[in-house]
Amino acid sequence: MNIMAWWHFSVAALLITILKKSESLDVVYLSNNCNATITASTSGAGLLEPDSSLYYKNNQDCQMILATDSSEKRLLFQFVRFNLEEAIDGQCLDSLRIYDGPNTTSSALTSTLCGRIQVPDVESSSNQVLFDFKSDEDGRTSGFGIYYTVFTDGPCGSNQFNCSNGKCITGALECDSYDMCGDGSDEANCEVEAIVDDGGLSPAAIAGIIAGSICLILLIIGIVRVGINKYKSHKLIKELVEEMKKNQAGEHTGEDFWGNGDDEDD
Prior knowledge:
Mean pLDDT: 83
Strand content: 15-25%
Order of helices and strands: HEEEEEEEEEEEEEH
C-alpha cells in the first residue's frame, strides 16, 4: 500500500469511527417534540438538546415528556452544558425547568434555570419527566446539553451493569466513553485500545497518526514557504545590485539610466 492509499484509508477509517461514535447516543431535540411524549432510547441513554441548530429558536414555549417503557425504570440527568440568556433584575428571559412527572403540577426536579451555570445531576422518582423550555423574542445562545440514562435500582440483572452508586444501567453502556452511571464507574475499568489489534490499527492509533501527519505536512509547508521567501529576497537583492552596477557603469561611459549616450556637440 503506497503512502497516498494509506492516507486515504486512515482518513476514511477515522471518519467512520467518528460517525459511529456520534450515532451511539440518540439525540432528542425539544423544538421538534413540543407537546409530545418521547420514549427513552432502547439503548438506555441519550442526549437532550433544545434545537438541532447552533442556537435555539426565539419565542419558544415548549413542553416535552421523556418517559421510560416501564414504571420500574427511572431517569438520571447529567448537565454537560447549560447556557441560556442571562436573567435581568432576577427574572429569567429564557428558561428551563424540569418536573418529576408528566405535568407542571408534579414536583420540580430543578428550579427555573437560566444564564450560564453549572447544574448538578438530578434523577427522577418516576418513569416520566416533563421539560418546560421557554425563550423570548430576542437574545439566544447555544442552550444546553443533557445526558440521560435509564436505570433501575439493584439488584442488577445479567444484562445490566452494576454502578458503584447502586444504579443498574444497560450493560452495553459500559466502556462506551460516556459516564452513564454518574459516578464514572462504567468507564473505570475499560482497557485502553491497543495500537494494533486483530482488526488492524485502532481508531485511537489512526487518529494519532493522522494528527502527526498533518503537523508534519504543515511544518514542511512552513519550511518551503520560508525557503521561497528567502529565495525571492535573495533574487531581489541580486537584481538591485546588478541595477546599481549598471547605473554606475552608465555614469562612467556617459550613458544615462536608460543607456542613452550624451549628445555630442556640433
